[in-house]
Amino acid sequence: MNRRLYSILFLLLLLHAQLSAAPADSVSALQEHTQLWQMVDAPQRQNPALHGTLFSSSFSQLCVEADWQHQSESFLLQEGTGHLLPSASVDSYLRLSNRTAVWGHASYMNGKQYDITWNSTTDYRLLQPYVLADTLGGDTRRERYRFEGGYATRLGHWLLGAEMLFRADHEYRDVDPRMRGVVNELTLRFGAGYDAWNYRWAAAFEGNIYKQRNSVDFYRELGVIPEYQMTGLGTEYSRFSGDKRSLQYEGGGTRLLFDATPLHSRGLYAHIALSQHRYHRLLTENYTLPLTDLYTQSVRASIGWRRMSVSRLAVFADVEYQKRSGDEHIIGTSATTSFPDLGVLTMYKNRLFDSRLTALYGMPGWHVSASIGYQSNNQEYAYPQRLLEVAHIYARLVGETFLKPSERFTLTARLEASYKGRVSDKFSVPFVDLQPSFAQMLSHTYTFAKANYTELAAMVRADYRLRGYGLFAALAGGWTGCSASANQTAARLSLGITF
């Protein structure tokens, strides 16, 4: 309760500061900060030194939002069939001078996720496959607090910047099985850039610390069901599954970023990011035992050409590769509460690859982009040997327009269509040796992993200017069809003020 009160007070203080310091918004500022062209500059926003140069105008926004999603059948069992997540947020980017900029974000979200099974751990996509899981599951409540702040300045030919990001998540269920996950994550970024030879050369360093306490309790008199310590592709650490239901995750990592961007209106640009992270899963019930270690290494590279004049044109390619590998600790026996750690075995491997080519063209009142790409997801478990490999090609088309019916009134509309089609797949699992519930879960995972997906989405936003600030309302919605005879419907309603 205190944390919620502090978050609300922080939002109000930030709002007061921005109303006092920020200049009145304009249509040009709205377009600069929200238009589709920002996808070209998105990689540079991760370097705080470059973030301070991306916008020439100040823009701040206070928003309350309701995000709703429903799936007729869960695309991914571990993430449920949908959610309803109301939230409130303040975002601000302020140009203090031609040389200096500051930015910040504060938000609070409190909602519900529906019908989650085979996962009792928060941050599933980050920590999978090493999660606590059961066959019953249910709806979960979720609270999130997020705070971000950054500063950038210019000293001669040098650009310097720093940024801090903090996230606190609380996910829980008040009926059996009563899962609870409490997450704290802190990220610090430091960046620098230098202008020379008609280019801006930049580098940044990021450090991350992650912690989660995770547990499941049962209060009913009818007894409990097993909680499984999952280890990948339907396998479990059977020795510590069943009645061991308290975990702790500790980890984090580092990331290096490099950018080269032209100082003039046209030219080649490039971005590369290298990262490595490690997450320990510890059993904390009566004693502390290391169960698994998850290692992730990734590289992302972008290279393109852009022209910025009356019309804008950008053509760029993105490539991302991530390698995930998991070690399982071999724990010996002991007559006391001290168990010897005899060594580790690398049992799980997951390789993710994504490449795409994008073309973006626009004028002051509209933009359109088209992308085509290829992605693959290959998972392997060493023994007993299991394999899941899927590959897709995909295409995406997005159009955006800004309309100004009157001096005070602005409309923004965006349409999007995409398709993802299977190229190949391979699945090998010893179903004969599996419990029926595990076999059913793996069959569901494979069915939706290899499926084709068609998505249609639209967004309309209306802004009305008053003296010194503006009012806005935005409605977004989408439909996703899956070849596995399932579909998803989503909607988001946003109301707020700009200043």
Structure description:
It is a single chain. This protein is mainly beta and 499 residues long. The chain is 11% helix and 63% strand. It contains 6 helices and 21 strands. It has helices at 2-21, 27-34, 38-41, 48-51, 124-127, 436-449; strands at residues 59-71, 82-95, 100-116, 132-133, 138-155, 158-172, 178-196, 199-217, 228-232, 235-236, 246-262, 266-283, 289-308, 312-331, 341-363, 366-381, 386-403, 409-428, 453-465, 470-482, 486-498. The strands form 2 sheets. It has an 18-stranded antiparallel β-barrel. It has a 3-stranded antiparallel beta sheet with strand order 4-9-10, with no helix packed on it. β9 and β10 (235-236) form a beta hairpin.
Defining traits:
18-stranded antiparallel beta barrel; 6 helices; three-stranded antiparallel β-sheet
